[in-house]
Design a protein that fits this description.
330 residues, alpha/beta, Metallo-beta-lactamase, Chain A, Rossmann fold, 7-stranded mixed beta sheet, 6-stranded mixed beta sheet, 6 helices, globular
């Protein structure tokens, strides 16, 4: 019998194996598990702190180590398209498109296939290729923007609006400053300004540590770390929410999918997301050919209802572990 569900992370348990994906703790409950980490964002990478055996892409490990200042131990690199076998269970790492190194995992069992997406983006960006289409029997997918109201504008148009707003602020004598995640979004913005402007791009040290991993992976990012004070009137600053720069005359901006609902007279708000929007998620489900879909994170109830109504596929939020088994939906 195979069981699956949420248990401080997504868990699959068979008679021979126990796999857990993106665990939220490092406790002894992980001792007998094979631990998989989908990407380096803090809400998914806690498991890399565990002393037990774990797997992720090398880029995920390097970003985590650069940001945390600690080495990952008892670790195996995974590579896209190179399956890992545990008895009669096979785990295949596949590009998720969310950020550098982000991974979806296709688990092949003797009688079924289960795909865990982690966070995904289903279109190409300036720094990533969109998530790879994967066929499976059972799909476990994020539903961050699983509400029909979250449909993002064309990405090229968003890029153009960001550049336009930035140049307008500089013309007013202000320093445009973007507050973003240190990993993923920051590098996309650096790349954007490198490609479409001649502006000096200034980042915090934390972002620079992630930039180094991107550069090692072949994506050159032209920027410099911030000094104690920014006086350059022809630059753009990229910071994290917890590490702002010392500049008196600045204009603040955010880039997030939630910006669709943001309105501010001073701040710029751009719906640039590293997640799939509603239409992308629905297309990803359709392309997977899954017979059953479980959602986690975000608009799970709404998304499950939309999948049932629009695609005619059995769907519901991911249950807590041991509440359901695969046989319940066969």
């Amino acid at each position: 019998m195979t069981e699956l569900g949420w248990c401080g992370g997504f868990m699959i348990r068979t008679r021979e194996s126990q796999l857990i994906f993106d665990p939220s703790s490092t406790g002894n409950q992980l001792q007998d598990s094979s631990i998989f980490i989908s990407h380096a964002h803090a809400d998914h990478s806690t498991g890399l702190r565990s002393k037990f055996l774990k797997y992720s892409s090398p880029e995920t490990r390097k970003i985590f180590e650069n940001l945390s200042g600690r080495s990952v131990v008892n670790f195996h690199d995974t590579n896209f398209g190179r399956p890992i076998k545990f008895g009669d269970v096979e785990v295949n790492p596949i590009n998720a498109g969310h950020m550098l190194g982000s991974t979806q995992f296709l688990v092949t069992l003797p009688d079924t296939t289960i795909l865990y997406t982690g966070d995904i983006n289903y279109i190409d960006t300036l720094t990533t290729k969109g998530a790879e289409k994967v066929e499976c029997d059972i799909l476990v997918t994020e539903a961050t923007y699983g509400d029909p109201s979250y449909v993002f504008p064309d990405r090229e148009g968003i890029y153009a609006n960001i550049v336009k707003w930035t140049l307008e602020q500089i013309s007013k004598g202000l320093v445009p400053t973007f507050q973003v995640y240190a990993a993923g979004k920051a590098q996309e913005l650096v790349r954007l300004f490198n490609l479409y402007t001649n502006l000096d791009v200034i980042t915090t040290q934390k972002i620079a540590k992630v930039n180094a991993v991107y550069s090692d992976s072949g994506l050159n990012l032209n920027c410099s770390e911030a000094a104690s004070e920014v006086n350059n009137n022809s630059c753009v600053c990229i910071t994290t929410r917890s590490n702002s720069m010392n500049t008196k005359n600045y204009a603040q901006a955010v880039t997030t999918g939630w910006a669709l609902n943001m309105h501010s007279s001073r701040a710029g708000a751009f719906p640039l997301s590293s997640h799939a929007d509603f239409n992308q998620l629905l297309q990803f489900v359709k392309d997977s050919g899954a017979k059953t879909v479980y959602g986690f994170t975000g608009c799970t109830e709404v998304f499950a209802n939309q999948i049932r109504r629009k695609l005619g596929i059995s769907s519901r939020p991911l249950p807590h572990f041991a509440q359901k088994t695969l046989q319940c939906f066969s």
